[in-house]
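B., you asked whether I could sanity-check this one before it goes into the benchmark set. Here's the sequence:
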Amino acid sequence: MIKFVIVFLLLAGCTLTPKQNLPMAIYDLGLQQSTEHHSSIPFNTSILVADVTAPIWLDNQAIQYRLTYHDPARSYAYANSRWAASPAKLLTRRIKDYLVTHQGITSSHDGLKADYALLTELEEFTQVFDHPDNSRVIIRLRASLIERNTRMLLAQEKFSSIQEAPSADAAGAVAALISASDTISNELIKWLIDNLAEKNSVKK
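And here's what the prediction gave me:
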């Protein structure tokens, strides 16, 4: 009877000693890449950068991935790795950091008077495995520029960035998502400046 119990435990992968839990790895988007100079905008305006919103399945701290070769409609989360805050909150901070590097645009806080508002909706922020040892990351978002006095929608655009992950794990996902976040933030700010410049030239 004792031998039967021992064999059963071995086949079931059990152990008589407790397993040690792996430490949780916590990531953020790191420091913004330094720029050699601040670009100067030929106009002065203030903009309220609203917090990025996200669907329920992205509104958490999980580092999520998809296995397109297995079940593309299902998302998974790494067990021992997570974000320091939700992707939407991390991306909000990233966009604001990029905005302040441009002289001529003031980032306003909620409740303070601002000429315009930037609303951003995050649609995708995941790692995608096309094969078990090969992955990429995808960020997709939609941005809307609003004139606050008239509440008029001035411009709306979708942005996306796809980056190959350097490794097929959580660390690889984080590295690629940082790069993709920088790319999409830079594109978003350029779009914002172009639309604000056009609006200010019309006023003149």
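One thing to flag: The chain is about 30% helix and 40% strand. Otherwise nothing jumped out at me.
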